[in-house]
Specification:
By secondary structure, the protein is mainly alpha-helical. The chain has 13 helices and 6 strands.
């Protein structure tokens, strides 16, 4: 079955109600944009005539050769602008829905107490697992659709503009399969799978977590035997991330390391970081204000590597106490004068 048929079947499947509330890639419409591009069609027809003339041994002028090998104004205007908008909407919808789902799973305080009481009367775990399954399928199918249509664009125009567009999506932080919320959903499924809570084996099998490799990675298995690896090494301490945060650029760091890089106290948190503070890896500024606290990933590390997690917790608390003491000693000196 061709991907276009598979994607259409997905859009009209069991999750149709979910898709009514969320954007998706207009795969058929984008294909029509490529097919109906008059410039490309004219060039294609011209190329066919040229090839026929060549076979007949006739002379061919340079004007008859294709002059639009790398781009097309009509396609570029309609195709890339629409695709960028769709990718942005999909990333926003996925992030908000995943945030809401995971917030329920790792709720704290009064909300956690209310959810525990509710579970006595209604089992929400299966509904949460199903919601997670739908979200993972949603992001994977749309990501594949974008990859396929960009590949088709490059094939039609004999260009690398499709590849360049992927780089632009990465720069705009809307590359779907690089979302920190996808890593969180992977950890969510692995956490449920470890507790034998009936997590779907189909989708928990998509994710694997390997700490014994040369570097700790989470692997996402995609259709067509494609695998994506998410490096879980903190670039500052060069160890498995503890109490991890993902900056808006997508890079993961331990909270302690991220605070150190942003020159803020651990007890103040990353929200207090200066807008000029830069990511230690890509040097992008302003990535700390919208940092995502990776609670599910931290829970996964806690459950899989208890001794390591306890050691890091003790070290972080010791550093927090030390910084707090130094901070209040300075405040006392400023207030009292000695």
């Amino acid at each position: 079955m061709k991907f276009g048929e598979t994607f259409t079947e997905y859009l009209h499947g069991d999750q149709e109600r979910f898709l009514d509330k969320c954007s998706h890639v207009e795969y058929k419409r984008l294909k029509k944009v490529l097919k109906s591009c008059r410039t490309c069609k004219g060039l294609h027809d011209s190329a066919c005539k040229t090839e026929q003339q060549w076979d007949e041994g006739k002379d061919i002028s340079e004007s008859q050769l294709c002059q639009c090998q790398s781009s097309c104004q009509l396609c570029d205007h309609m195709f890339f602008s629409e695709l960028m908008k769709e990718a942005s909407d999909i990333a926003g919808c996925f992030s908000s829905r995943a945030r809401h789902l995971l917030h329920l799973h790792v709720a704290s305080g009064m909300q956690r107490y209310v959810l525990r009481i509710r579970q006595c009367f209604k089992n929400d775990q299966q509904a949460m697992i199903e919601e997670g399954r739908v979200l993972i399928e949603y992001i994977i199918m749309n990501a594949i659709a974008i990859r396929k249509i960009l590949k088709k664009y490059d094939k039609v125009h004999k260009s690398v503009n499709g590849k360049n567009f992927k780089s632009k999506m990465r720069a705009e932080h809307i590359e779907l399969l690089q979302s920190p919320w996808l890593i969180e959903l992977g950890a969510f499924y692995l956490n449920f799978n470890g507790l034998n809570c009936g997590a779907s084996s189909e989708f928990s099998g998509h994710f694997s977590f390997d700490f014994n490799a040369s570097r700790p990675v989470m692997t996402l298995a995609l259709p067509s035997s494609i695998k994506l690896e998410y490096d879980l090494t903190c670039a500052v301490c060069l160890d498995l991330v503890f109490n991890p945060y993902a900056l808006s650029c997508g890079h993961l760091f331990c909270k302690l390391c991220a605070c150190s890089a942003a020159s803020v106290m651990v007890f103040e948190g990353l929200k207090c970081a200066s807008p000029d503070s830069k990511c230690p890896i890509c040097r992008e500024a302003g990535g700390y204000a919208k940092a995502v606290h990776m609670l599910e990933l931290d829970l996964l590390v806690k459950r899989r590597f208890k001794e390591y997690w306890k050691e890091r917790l003790i070290a972080e608390r010791a550093e927090m106490v030390k910084q707090s003491k130094e901070y209040w000693d300075l405040q006392t000196i400023y207030a009292v004068g000695y």
